[in-house]
Amino acid sequence: MQEEKICTFIEDMITLAPTFKKNFLESLGAAHEKKLSNHQFYCLAIIYKQESVPMSVLARTLGISKQQLTRIVDELSNQDLVIRTINPRNRRVILARLSDEGKKRIAAFKEAAKAKAAELFSVFGEEELDAAINSLRVLGELFAKIQSAAKL
Fold first, then answer.
1. CB 3.0 to 4.6 Å from 102: which of 4, 15, 85, 98, for a disulfide?
2. pLDDT for 20-59, tens place per residue?
3. CA nearest to 102, candidates 51, 56, 147
4. Which fold has domain 31-151?
5. Buried/exposed 46-60: b ≥16 CB within 10 Å, e otherwise
6. What percent of the chain has pLDDT over 70?
7. Annotated domain spans of the chain
8. DSSP 3-state assignment of 31?
């Protein structure tokens, strides 16, 4: 029974992913400047959510090597979007945090994305929006659980 449910989940995700990417992510992509690669943008978004993030945690979250992350953060730093600092509790740990310009860039993206999402979601009623928000939260919790189990 569980195997059948897993197959259904995988099939639904495979079917949903291209539609989600095309109809939502690509629409929002126009809202963020093309000067950033996807990894750079995701890096900024992760730092924004956590304020300052150890570089090793950032690499693991993005699913890339520390060397790849170093290049990404170097470029973001060159654009004055990210600042590296030393963790005061452990001087061996380098933290990445948003600069004031990085915070402005994320704020501008959020405003543009909110306007675009309002346009895209205008076809939904309140109950459908609530259901979508709840579904995303549940998926987020499930994926966090999967990621946590994978670290064991």
1. 98
2. 777 666 666 654 555 788 888 889 989 998 888 999 999 9
3. 51
4. Arc Repressor Mutant, subunit A (1.10.10)
5. ebbeeeebebeebbe
6. 89
7. 31-151
8. coil
Structure tokens that stand for 130 in this block = 């609530």
Q: Encoding tokens for residue 146?
A: 């999967």
User: What's the whole-model pTM score?
Assistant: 0.71
Specify whether the CB–CB gap between 54 and 88 falls below 8 A: no
The DSSP annotation for 43-105 comes to HHHHHHHHSEEEHHHHHHHHT--HHHHHHHHHHHHHTTSEEEEE-TT-TT-EEEEE-HHHHHH
CB atoms < 10 A from the CB of 81, how many?
24
Compute CA distances 123 → 73, 80, 118, whole Å: 39, 39, 9
Q: What is the pLDDT of residues 104-122, one digit of tens each?
A: 988 888 888 888 888 888 8
Per-residue pLDDT tens over the stretch 68-85: 999 999 999 999 999 999
